[in-house]
Design goal:
232 residues, alpha/beta, Rossmann fold, 7-stranded parallel sheet, 8 helices, globular, binds 1,4-dihydronicotinamide adenine dinucleotide, SDR_fam, quinone binding, Sc_DH/Rdtase_CS
Length: 232
Amino acid sequence: MKKLEGKVAIVTGASGGIGRAITKELTEEGCTVIGFNYVPSNEGIEYVLDITNRQAVEEAVKDVIGKYGRIDILINNAGITKDNLVYRMSYEDWDAVINTNLTGAFNMVKACIREIVKNEGVIINVSSVVGLEGNIGQVNYSASKAGLVGLTKSLAKEFGRKNVRVNAIAPGFIETPMTEKLPEEIKKAALEKISMRRFGKPEEVAKLVRFLVTDGTYINGQVIVIDGGMEM
Ligand code: NAI
């Protein structure tokens, strides 16, 4: 018996590296997975929208409930980077990253929470080790990812008694389009800080998400680091 048979999940940014892998893992468990994608993947079930657009989020969530009957699982995975040193970081780049990574996740929670409470569901927020440790050139990104940790812990406290679990994962360097664009010298320096001397694969992150959704039934309000043993 598959563990998520009859369940419905929304994964934001499902057309990206980690989102696509999460979609595959949850689908293998029998879950109906719906992507909320900014960039269309033309795979599986997807809605094309910008998660910073609250009206679009609310309408798409309503449509999902109408068509698929329920929502049990929300994976807030969509994220962007706009790296720069503070001197050079524009206000626009600060706003864009906070709006997508943090406020976008909140928009999704607001739209889905009643359904998730009704179904005693699960929320996973994709944070980052950078949200826990900080990083040069990433004040916007690290603040957004640290914000997701606060969102996670507060939601876990607010809804634990309703049997809803809310956790965050904090990946290190994972091989995806997001890290592909990093300059070679940054990648090389990063590798030296990872005890396993390699970047992670999206599938490895997705397996953690699958565990948290299915078997991690007494894990709540936690941030699980998945970074191959990295010293920042
Ligand atoms: P990616 O760039 O392949 O995927 C990000 C996805 O988010 C894309 O599908 C993109 O279209 C979507 N997205 C961006 N803005 C959106 C919006 N406004 N509305 C809807 N969707 C939007 O990157 P990756 O690596 O798969 O990242 C997934 C998550 O993992 C992100 O939150 C990222 O910050 C996080 N992460 C990634 C790490 C890595 O090393 N790749 C490390 C730690 C965290």
